[in-house]
Structure formats: C-alpha cells, structure tokens
From TrEMBL:
One of its GO terms (biological process) is glycogen catabolic process. Residues 286-637 form the Glycogen debranching enzyme C-terminal domain. Residues 20-240 form the Glycogen debranching enzyme bacterial and archaeal type N-terminal domain. It holds the Pfam family GDE_C. This is Amylo-alpha-1,6-glucosidase. GO terms for molecular function: 4-alpha-glucanotransferase activity; amylo-alpha-1,6-glucosidase activity.
Length: 653
C-alpha cells in the first residue's frame, strides 16, 4: 500500500480535510479524536475523552482542544482551527499545515515563514494520558509557543453551555497546572517537560458548531472554557513535551514516556499493518476483564458485535489470551441462556437472539484455529448446553418448534441484528423464522455435537441426533424456493418474505450448513448480483421498493436506511467465506481483489480504519461510527482466510 500522507493542498481545503478524522485509543477505553486540522466537527471530538468512575464510568470529554500560537519576531500565528455558528472558521491555522503523515508516530507539520514545527501525538497505552511532542525542526530564530486549553468536562453524548457553576480555579502541580471544573470529575493535569510561564485568564468561548451533529439532527452548538495560556520559547532542534492526563506525573519523565510509547508502535507498510493497529484500539481492559468496544466514537460494548469481532481482532492475529479474556468477561453477564446485547451488570439489556449463537461460532473459530477443541469443551460445554436447552425448551422470545427450527419475536421489538426501530415499530419486520438465526442455530447444535462426540459424551450427542437428521430438510422446505433460486429472509406462518437481503449468506458460509453445494452456489450468486458493493453487502436489493441508496439525515431517516440498502463491511467476511467454500481454492484471487478494495478507503473517513456503514450506491460514502470493530475484524479475516489457503497449498507442494 502507499504511504498514508496528506498534503498542504489537502489540508488547506476544509471541505476535504474536515471529512477525515483521526482516532487514538488506549486499553482503558480513553481516546482522542478530531479531524486532520484539529477542527472538531462532532461532540465526540476532543483530545482527552476518558471514563469517569465517580460519575457513571462512561466516557467524558475533559480537554476539547489545545490551541497553539506561534510567535516569530513579534508576529503571532494562530495554528488552531475552529468552526463557530453559521460556519464561521476562526482561526484559520489549517493554512499553515504543510502535511500530515501517518507512520510510526502520526505527525502534523506546520510552516510559518521559515520556521517548521512538528507536532506528534501519542495516546499512552496504560494511562489516560495524551502525550504531545512539539519540535522546532527548522528556524532562523527562536520562536515563541503558546498553548491555550479549551475545556468541556461533560459526558460525550451531551454538550456544554456557559455557566457560573464551573470551577474556574486551578492548582499548581509539577511544571504545570490542574483543572477540575466540576466535583466528582478526575482533575485534568497539563504538565511540561520544562518550565513554562502560565497566565490564568478563564474565559468562555461561545457557540462552537459541530457540523456532523447538525447533519445528524442533533444539538450542535457548544460553549467551551478557555482557562489560560502557557508560554515558552523553542530554539531550532529543540523539543517540548506536553502531558495531558488525569493523574499528576513526573514532568522530567515525559520525554522518556513518549519514547517508550513510540517504541511500542510498529511501522505501517501494508494494509494488514493498518488493520492490526486499528484492531488494538477496540479492546478495553481492566485487570483480566476485557471488553470489545463496538465502534468509535459513540458505541460501548455490544454482545453480538463482540462475538463476531473476536476471531478477526484476535485469532487471525494470534492473540489467544485476549480472546479468552474477552469471552470470559462476557460470561460474567450471562443470564438464562442469553448474553447482553448492550450494557453490563444491572444495566444489561438482553434483547439479542443471535448473540448466544455467535458465541458458539466464536468458540468454534478458536477451537479450529488454535487446535483447542478440548479446551473449549472443558471450559464452555456447560454454558453451551445451557443455551441449547433454553432455546429448545422455549426461552424469552425464542422457541424451537416441532420442526426443530427457531422461532423468535416480540411485538414492537427487533431481536436480530437488523434492529432499527422508528416510532416504536421495527423498521425491518423479521418476527418468525429468520434465516440467519436458523443457520446459526444449526451450526451451534452441530458444533456442540461434534465436541460431545470427540470427548465421548454419549448423552449429549444422542440428545441432538433427531435434530441432526431432521433439521436440514425442514430448513430447506421452510426457506428455499426453487423458482426464486434463493432463500426467504424471514418466514412467519404462511407469510414468506423473499426480499433479497444478505442474511441468507450465513446459510452458505458457516462451518456447518444444511444446504447442498448447488443451492449454496445459487445463494452466493444472488448475493453477488444484487447486494455486493466494494464496501460491503447491501442490506436490501436495489430492486426493492423500500431500498434506500443513501444513509443520511436525522435519526429516523438514518434508521430507515440502516438495514434497507445501506452496505455493511462486516458482511464481507461471510460472503468471502461462502465464496471460497463453494468455488474452492481458485476463488482466492477474487477474494483478495475484494479485500484490496478496502485499501482505497483507509483514508476516507477515519484515517487508518473502516467505517460502520457505507451508502448502497456509488460513490459509497461512509457513515455511522468512524471506526467499527466488526468492520475491521471481518475485512481482516478475509485476508486471513486467503493466506490460510495459500499456506496450505505451499505445504502440499
């Protein structure tokens, strides 16, 4: 792949630069996120977003921006860039940006007259702390550098309004100061690698405009509190290190800490390197507990997303330990055969029928890839058996009927992954027999039987013998239409919905399938003809009357398009797997071409990652969360599958 770099021409064009976002996250779920020019366009943008355990343990934005002003021979140049109400851009520091380079350490390069200033930012892996390094790379004279912090101290989904309650005071710490606008918040410490002058002059800046929130139909104006100004001088070749964190640190070690963090980064030379770096940011770890963040900047942990993402995020990379910790963490909230869809503990919402079935698939991948079937059976067979028993006996909103198929549904609820609801009504009505639910159900039971047979649990094997014999014919009779040439998406009584959706692909991709090779080939071809895009599979055929070509507008408009035409990258993993299974090793080149298409868009939205969704029609504009776990995971798994086939071929030579 080519080097990820943006030129002065790119950066000086705000229409272009404000659509490209930068994300850095650490293992504790703290992150920094903004645009290429550091002009915030979302309420989720800022330099230090971190969980607040004394409030709600959710992410809160502390430091929105750190505005730089460079002084050269008594002339000031403001490097900051903000958008205010009605689209007013001030200051216009983007015009001094010469380039932005993504490499071992992402670097902004500013040029003011003959002075060249490098700015490099790293988010510390194990501390909620942003480290910034300013280096005067070239200059005929010493320059002045001033930094002005803009503070928010609020929950990421909300906005700040100027008020008299905010604490405008500051505390002195080692070579810096700390702020705590409201009680219960962790203080924000801003410290420097050398002594700097500080002038305290708190002042509200009004009506920053977050254009992305405006486009999404949300409140979009915010006031921020500028607390004061730090001032220092730099000579040519000198570096200044800045620490922005929630704990006081030793300022004399900031440069060492920066170098240590830099040493943990690996250079980017391939698309796989980019995806591996993106994959690391989705893990939130506290001790032995690991959560998978579904997507940045607004999602938390989702059960379904966790199980779908883990093989691509962990197993394809060889991180078995992280996989096990994430699985075991999810088990802490396992209740009555279900995993939470969202939330944890008392805040868990058990409204996902498929999360327990994806749990089987995730363990199945671990067992096969890591040759760990015994480990899976010994550690997880009781949970697996509990899920199967609950589903077969009739659990909440799901039951196994006499034909051995799973029926699911609840009035006003959307229990599959197509879960958008508008005005209390599911956008995609899928009550009854859903095709991917039953494909996953068959795969789960058969994998459980496989393990039971391998480890001589005759009772567990015999319990599902009739299922194994009867399910394939029943599945085919319920879903298959010879005249249509593909599977129904959902069946409820006599109502068979033959809308062309991607859910049928799982009946062809999963390790256990009840369908013949011929039928699976027809499914793959139907999906290829009507749903395949370079960015993922459409959620509805363009020939359907309800097809939405563009994912845009307010919440309800987006929700109506979400699963009615919008393309999802995560579905490409299943499509690639199905294609490889029905067409064999000769399909490797084709799948690698599909994988290579994503190389073209790694700089289109979140630099170095893959979005949640894309429009169903060209030019396939990105939307939703800027960096989505299962998008990255399943696209990376495409490459992993082709590499496995090529390696197997090489070993056989």
């Amino acid at each position: 792949m080519k080097k990820i770099e943006f030129s002065h021409k790119d950066l000086s064009n705000l229409q272009f630069a404000l659509t490209k976002e930068i994300l850095r996250a650490n293992i504790s779920n703290a992150y920094a996120c903004t645009t290429l020019t550091s002009c915030n366009t979302r309420k989720y943008h800022g330099l230090l977003i971190t969980p607040q355990p004394k409030i709600d343990n959710q992410n809160h934005l502390l430091l929105s921006s750190l505005d730089e002003v460079v002084t050269v021979e008594e002339q000031e140049f403001n490097l900051a860039c903000h958008r205010y109400r009605n689209g007013v851009i001030y200051p216009k520091g983007h015009k001094y940006l010469q380039s932005y380079v993504v490499d071992l350490i992402p670097t902004h390069i500013y040029k003011v007259g003959n002075a060249v200033l490098f700015k490099q930012m790293l988010f510390q892996e194990k501390k909620d702390r942003l480290l910034i390094k300013y280096t005067l790379q070239k200059s005929d004279v010493n320059i002045g550098l001033s930094l002005r912090p803009l503070l928010a101290f609020r929950q990421v989904h909300k906005l700040t309004v100027a008020n008299d309650v905010a604490n405008r005071n500051y505390q002195i710490c080692q070579q810096g100061v700390s702020y705590q606008l409201y009680s219960k918040y962790t203080p924000l410490y801003i410290q420097f690698s050398k002594k700097v002058a500080y002038e305290h002059k708190p002042e509200w800046y009004y009506q920053f405009e977050y254009i992305k929130e405006k486009e999404r139909g949300y409140d979009y104006l915010e006031d921020l509190l500028m607390m004061g100004e730090f001032r220092t001088e730099l000579r040519e070749g000198e570096s200044l290190f800045v620490s922005c964190g929630v704990e006081e640190d030793n300022p004399f070690l900031i440069s060492r800490d920066f170098a240590k963090e830099a040493s943990l980064r690996f250079p980017i030379s391939t698309m796989e390197d980019v995806l591996k770096r993106a994959a690391r940011m989705f893990f939130s770890r506290k001790g032995t507990k690991v959560d998978v963040i579904a997507g940045f900047p607004w999602f938390g942990r989702w059960g379904r997303d966790t199980f779908i993402s883990l093989p691509g995020l962990c197993l394809a990379i060889g991180d078995w330990r992280m996989f096990r910790m994430a699985i075991d963490t999810m088990l802490e909230d396992f209740r009555d055969g279900f995993f939470p869809n969202i939330g944890k503990g008392d805040q868990s919402a058990y409204n996902s029928i498929d999360a327990p079935l994806w749990f089987f698939w995730s363990l199945q991948q671990y067992a096969y890839i890591n040759n760990a079937k015994r480990e899976v059976w010994e550690n997880y067979s009781k949970v697996m058996g509990c899920i199967l028993d609950n589903f077969s006996e009739g659990a909440s909103n799901v039951r196994m009927d006499s034909n051995f198929l799973l029926w699911q549904g609840q009035e006003g609820k959307a229990l599959t992954w197509m879960d958008a609801i508008v005005d209390g009504v599911p956008v995609t009505q899928r009550k009854g027999y859903a095709v991917e639910i039953n494909a996953l159900w068959y795969n789960a039971v058969m994998f459980y039987r496989e393990l039971a047979e391998d480890f001589c649990d005759d009772a567990a094997t015999a319990k599902w013998d009739e299922f194994a014999n009867c399910f394939p014919d029943n599945f085919k009779s319920v879903f298959w239409s010879k005249s249509m040439g593909y599977l129904a998406d959902c069946v409820d009584g006599n109502n068979k919905d033959f809308s062309v959706r991607p859910n049928m692909i799982f009946a062809a991709s999963l390790p256990y399938t009840s369908l013949s090779l011929k039928i699976r080939q027809l499914i793959v071809e139907k999906v290829r003809q009507e749903l395949l895009t370079p960015r993922g599979l459409r959620t509805l055929s363009p020939t359907h009357k309800d097809y939405h070509a563009v994912y845009a507008g307010n919440q309800s408009e987006r929700d109506r398009a979400y699963h009615n035409g919008t393309a999802w990258p995560w579905l490409m993993g299943a499509y690639a797997e199905a294609y490889l299974k029905v067409y064999g090793d000769d399909a490797v080149d084709y799948v690698e071409q599909l994988y290579g298409e994503f190389d073209k868009i790694l700089c289109d939205y979140c630099v170095g990652s893959i979005a949640e969704v894309y429009d169903g029609n060209p030019p396939y504009s990105p939307g939703g969360s800027i960096s989505q776990a299962w998008s990255v995971a399943e696209v990376y798994r495409m490459k992993y599958m082709t590499e496995c086939i090529k390696n197997r071929k090489e070993r056989s030579l």
